[in-house]
Amino acid sequence: MALELRTLPEGLAEIVARHLVAAERALENEDAILAGEHMAMAKYRAGRSAVVREASGIVLYRLGQFSEALQDLRAAKRMSGDVRLVPLIADCERGLGKPAKALETIKLVDLARVDPDTRVELLIVAAGARADMGKPEAAVLTLQGSDLTKLPPGTARARLQYAYSEMLSACGRANEAWEWMERAAASDIDDATDAAQRCNELEGLAFSVESDEE
């Protein structure tokens, strides 16, 4: 980010950077209005910067303003060519009630040629889109693959296993959902999810299902 901002006129880069940092801090403090104001100022001053458009898109996405976020993220993608923005772009389509469009967006990416973190996010969004379309079993199949167990422990594996557990739960497969949430908790060495808490919730559901079956 700093490298790209250096291409801005002297003094402007520092002002824009301050707005970006302030917007991030405002989001951390759950002050959506202030975050939006800082991003608007950054975009006003440097709207042709891919970094600024990306940051604006991410802020708007986190605020649930999917239409506006989509515009900024698409602009950033055109300027930078960064495929890592595609999961967010596709998820904005989901947020706008267009799961089929989300899947079309994801299909344009060769999953075998992207980094593991991006691939995981693409798979999670694709599964969510299929669930949105009333196809939870298809969502489960979307997430099945070697990444579930072969990725190293960390955020990517934890998020994938977490999503897989949630889709299993949506299909009524409570015992499997509990088992995979436990795996997600063990994988989450960065404490990026609430998998440990969800384990407790799913454990009670799993035992309830077992009792009914007995």
Quaternary class: single chain
SS content category = mainly alpha
**N to C succession of SSEs:** HHHHHHHHHHHHH
Strand fraction equals: under 5%
| End-to-end Cα distance | 58 Å
Which regions have little confidence, pLDDT < 50, spanning 5+ residues?
Answer: none
Radius of gyration, in Å, reads 19 Å
What features would you describe in this structure?
The mean pLDDT is 90. 75% of the residues lie in helices and 0% in strands. It contains 13 helices and no strands. The protein is elongated. The protein has a domain of 81 residues: Tetratricopeptide repeat domain (Serine Threonine Protein Phosphatase 5, Tetratricopeptide repeat, Alpha Horseshoe). 43% of the residues are buried. Helix 2 packs parallel to helix 4. The protein is mostly helical. The N and C termini lie far apart (58 Å).
Keyword list:
mainly alpha, Serine Threonine Protein Phosphatase 5, Tetratricopeptide repeat, 0% strand
How is the topology of this model organized?
Layout lengths: L1 H4 L6 H17 L3 H15 L3 H13 L3 H15 L5 H10 L3 H9 L8 H17 L3 H8 L3 H4 L4 H16 L3 H14 L7 H19 L1
Helix pairs in contact: 2-3, 2-4, 3-4, 4-5, 5-6, 6-7, 6-8, 7-8, 8-9, 8-11, 9-11, 11-12, 12-13
What is shown here, in short?
With 214 residues, the protein is an all-alpha fold. The chain has helices spanning 2-5, 12-28, 32-46, 50-62, 66-80, 86-95, 99-107, 116-132, 136-143, 147-150, 155-170, 174-187, 195-213. It contains 13 helices and no strands.
